[in-house]
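User: I'll paste a sequence; please echo it back and then give the predicted structure.

Assistant: Echoing your sequence first, then the prediction.
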Amino acid sequence: MRTATWIEQLAHELAALDVPSADAAAIVVEAESHLGEAAADPLAAFGAPAAYARLMADALAPAASAGPAAGRVRARVAGVHKRYRGRTVLDGVDLTVRDGEAVLLIGPNGCGKSTLVRILAGLQRPDGGRVAVDGSVGYAPQHGGVAPHLTPSEQFVLFGRARGLSRAAAIRDGVRLADQLAWDAARAPVAAALSGGTRQKLSIVLAALGEPDLLLLDEPYQGLDLDSAQRFWELLWDWRDRGRAALVVAHARDALERADAVVELGRASAPLRSAA
């Protein structure tokens, strides 16, 4: 489907769902910007216009019940700076993620969301500022993150071994998490043969395998269908309600009301809503 056609249908579906005009316009502009900068296929990036419109409408609905009171700090970023090729990507960013808290990180393309998550995952170093992570980390990158020539079960064993799980425990935990996303991982072929949405599910499962203290998820439900996206949030809420911490990267206005706190990069990294 051509991008212009997809955008036109998205706008129509948002109007049909009675999404407020200002919110609908922001959703359309954000999607159009992402598709233009990434040169992405709209169906691969967001799914069908009707399904994505419904997801956005649901995201603007009243928030789910709050989880337990946030506790121990698992990640703290203070005054972090990062430059690429002479361009400032992160400029004095502050961020805190605690146990029992799901924090949403939003902002326009190129504002440094993925860079900040990679810094927290220990894959990049900041040019300045302080970064502290307490405990084990599970990381799902925006792209990749899975071994293309291994089956999901083989990847569960590989990742599980790094987290101290036996072969049986790793497969059991991976299949359990996959089941929460309505995916039968036990019978799945190698990752290269999976659809984009299913590979995304695999990436989420690998990040959560062994229950690390902190989940770092970079646009984890991009490419998921509507039902799978809802199941992702239910999995995340369960994670939070059991006292775990999570930082989720998403597009602006995408699931704003589903998180306990929202931080927007590009606006002095000020929290839009706090879980305090």
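The two ends are 44 Å apart (CA to CA). Strands lie at 73-84, 87-98, 101-106, 128-133, 137-140, 214-218, 245-249, 261-264, 271-273.
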